[in-house]
Amino acid sequence: MKTRPLGDLADLTVGHVGLMTSEYAESGVPFLRSLNIRPFRIDASDIKFISRKFHERLKKSALKPGDVVVVRTGEPGTATVIPQWLSEANCSDLVIVRPRPGLDPRYLAYLINGASRGFVNSRTVGAVQQHFNVGAARELPVPDLPLEEQRQIAGALGTLDDLIDTNRELRIRLEATRRTIVVSATRRSSIRVRLGDVAEHLPGKYLKKSDYERGGRYVVFGSNSVMGTHTHYLYEGPFSVLARIGSNCGALTLSVESAWVNNNASAIRSKSRVDNYWLHGILEQVDTDRHRGGSGQPFIRVESLMAMEVPWLEKPELARVEPALAELARAEHVLAVESQEASTTRDELMPLLLAGRVRIAKGIAG
Predict the structure, then answer these.
(1) Tell me: the pLDDT tens digits for 168-212?
(2) How many Å apart are CA 171 and CA 158, to the nearest integer?
(3) Total number of domains constituting the chain
(4) What is the pTM of this model?
(5) Rounded to an integer, what distance in angstroms lies between the CA atom of residue 310 and that of residue 291?
(6) How far, CA to CA in Å, does 201 sit from each of 42, 232, 237, 304, 360?
(7) What CATH number does the domain containing 247 carry?
(8) What is the largest CA-CA distance in the chain?
């Protein structure tokens, strides 16, 4: 397929480079950094702000909807389009691409995140920290497709991303509702129990690389959440998964279904087996940093965790609260599975569309 360099199809520059600590403000103009850029979306969870005066000084790195921003350092090549809701913003250490007429921004973002990752990886520089520079970005080959076909590709892939985004928002709301129920119930109760009296700790089991490759239909949890699949050593769900070793130790996940837990994590399950959703809600309120150990490789001191006191409910109140928590958690799980399937479909379809091996019939995507 014939290609053209990105520099012929768009204007490129780089975000502000320099110390920013003294320039951040409590409110003002949003200021994006590499950690705010995710494939196909903006992560607004930790956006910084700068004053309007400083924003006006950084005209070169000012952003507007429709710009494509690409991470230079950290995860080079991660790209997304500045959305309409971010009507005014600025940035640091990002490649800013402003497509000219004839190049669709969403199509370009999919191209950079997908088919062009090999090009990006081959053009990163730096002995200690890898960088993707504007000069290399200008050379990125872009398939010479009509604008309408670019929009069709972006539309087809965007439908899947829209589903993933919608599900993410719904899951956030469901989780917030579930946590509100737990907090409200604990405020009404004065009961405190030792965690080890109401819950059991089930250590994860060692899993060889060949076991992961063998696969299976059950999820495997580890220190970074879902690690793979396997068919043996199942813990019957629901139960809480605690990352026990490593930089992510203390992170908590709820397994609605039966699953396998590897040796970097632990399962925590109610001894009564009928209030695991309540137990998970209680564990989500625990400050796991208080139970950390290790100066080099951090880990959770399980004995300390199981010895702590936690709020609990009388059986009638548990019987009332548990079904509501279970329904919300299962709804979260359904949305997560649906999003994972959509993500897999998108990642499988994207290279085929971008390479021209699959074409979209007219009228299907817009």
Answers:
(1) 999 999 999 999 999 999 999 899 999 999 999 998 887 666 655
(2) 20
(3) 2
(4) 0.79
(5) 14
(6) 38, 19, 14, 12, 52
(7) 3.90.220.20
(8) 71
Distance, in Å, from the CA atom of 30 to the CA atom of 48, rounded to the nearest integer, reads 6
User: Position of tokens 């520059």?
Assistant: 13
Q: H-type helices in the chain, by residue range?
A: 52-57, 105-113, 117-122, 134-138, 147-187, 195-198, 209-214, 276-283, 302-307, 315-354
pLDDT in tens, 97-138: 999 999 999 999 999 998 777 888 888 876 556 788 899 999
Look-up: residue for tokens 């014939």? 2
| Adjacent-strand bridge partners of 96 | 13, 69
Looking at the fold, whether 136 and 257 belong to one and the same domain comes out as no
The residue length of the chain stands at: 366
Q: Which residue has the tokens 């309408």?
A: 148
Token pair recorded at residue 327 = 């329904």
Whether residue 222 is found in the same domain as residue 97: no
338-350 per-position pLDDT tens digit: 999 999 999 889 8
Residue 64 lies in a domain: yes
